[in-house]
Amino acid sequence: MDEKLYQQIEAWHKADEHQQIIQRVLSIPREEWDYRLTCLLARAYVNTQEPENWDTALSLLLSVEEEGKTDPEWYFRTGGVLCRLLRKEEAQARFQEGFALLPPDSEARPDWERRCTQVLAFCQQELDRKAAWERYGDSLDPEKALDFYLNGLLHGGLQDEDRVEGNAILLPRQGIRILPQVEQISQRGAVVNLWLEAPQWGKRLFECSVGMGSSPTQALGLSASSFIFSFLEGVMRMEDRVEPRELETLFDGKAHRWELYPSNIVGLGSAPQPEGQVWWELLGEDIQRRLGNQRVCYVKIYGAKVDGQVTGECRVDDIKSEELSAKVAQAVELWPAGQFASQKQFFFIRQQEETILPYPYEGAEGERRLRSALGEAVRMFMACRTEEDYDQYSQRLGERIGDETLADECLTFLPELCAANAFPQLQAAETVEICREGRPPETVYKNQLADYYPLWTLLLQLFQEEELGADPDAIYREYVGYSSTCNVVRQMEQQGSRLEDCRLASLLCQMGSGFQLR
């Protein structure tokens, strides 16, 4: 083989121009191909990543098998192609033969061991995916659908190394754990809930991914694709620090610096082609006002227009903002008429480490302590009998749990959270007014408060697990009855007003002198 040709082939190989190699070699008469050129052509066919080329690559390697018997690389290349063709046992045998020809102290051995291990893992992953597809069979059983979603769709399809662990899938490089749950599966649709956990975030992320198709298999596939190419794509951009946009906000007088990572805008139907970051331009300032001291904040934007009917939704940390949803709907209203159009995008906003302030309930251990303190708060609330008991509640609870701020929050926020659930027709304000001794009232978004929505999540858990020593319904009713919202509802009923027509003002929260915004 001509050395000049070899150098050109290697240059194309390094530039990932594998089709150039194929075209150049195929232009040479077959009888002029030697062993080296044949192996390089086989390598180029493999590197096109097109499965239809892999049989051709194997045929080329087998055509020079006699010459390759003493060449370890021939065995490694042949084993690699066999892995891609999912012939794992044959590939392992070839690898073993190749390593038998390499001296134990060969400098090339570690690299070949790494490469062979990777391609065998790829082969096993694809075998697992193939088996999942074969055993699913369009079943409407949620457990079988989950197995297919995990092993047939997510596993091997996440653009990074992954492994399945029980009913979860782990991305080891980022430390991310994905837990899907098939909420609904029908002949033409699938609703899949996905929770994502990583210790560096300080919270769970959540996405509900819907897929519609002509079969359960197709519906689940579209749900997985929507999740991977929108939500997960944005998460991976955040984890890999890809082209962040820097932001700065103030919370309780302290500066916080952030990095913004937008996902792709996924459009369907006749949705207009997005130009730049249209949704951030529309909502960015409003979103920044909802940032407090979170490690990570994530925002979902969804707009759709179906036969003239408009849907607009914006969720901040999976809490719907009526104010921002209305802005999304107004923008969608301007889209051209058509049968169906939709757009979806996510923003992932990560606080820079140097501006994060300490939070006492961070991580799994912190959540356990918050849950324990909440249980104590509920039990003490249910023990109150007189006005004096309620007046002394925050001070006594603060002494018991060692956290004055949380004590004030439990007395002020828990009744309103229960009332918001009891009267969903009411549109509650997205802010609260915090009154601290010696300071003017401060308007704060509920999303900014680290404890506000986690208190509701943990209270629901305690209700479901019946750990409070009393009937959950009785506790719930007691909290609702104590709330300011309940007083408003009574007044509206007396006036004959409809709850749907009422928008509540910001709750005025009178906090103790030791209260801290966090």
Element layout with pairings:
Blueprint: H1 3-14, H2 18-26, H3 35-47, H4 54-63, H5 65-68, H6 72-84, H7 88-101, H8 109-136, H9 142-154, E1 163-165, E2 168-171, E3 176-185, E4 189-197, E5 205-212, H10 216-239, E6 245-251, E7 254-262, E8 266-269, H11 278-288, E9 296-306, E10 309-316, E11 319-320, H12 322-333, E12 340-351, H13 363-382, H14 387-401, H15 404-422, E13 431-435, E14 442-445, H16 452-465, H17 472-482, H18 484-495, E15 507-510
Parallel strand pairs: 13-15
Antiparallel strand pairs: 1-2, 2-3, 3-4, 4-5, 6-7, 7-12, 8-12, 9-10, 9-12, 10-11, 13-14
Helix pairs in contact: 2-3, 3-4, 4-6, 6-7, 6-8, 7-8, 8-9, 9-10, 13-14, 13-15, 13-16, 14-15, 15-16, 15-17
Strand residues, percent: 15-25%
Low-confidence stretches: none
Find the count of extended strands (DSSP E, 2+ residues): 15
User: What's the average pLDDT?
Assistant: 94
Shape: elongated
Number of helices: 18
What about the largest sheet?
A: 7 strands, antiparallel
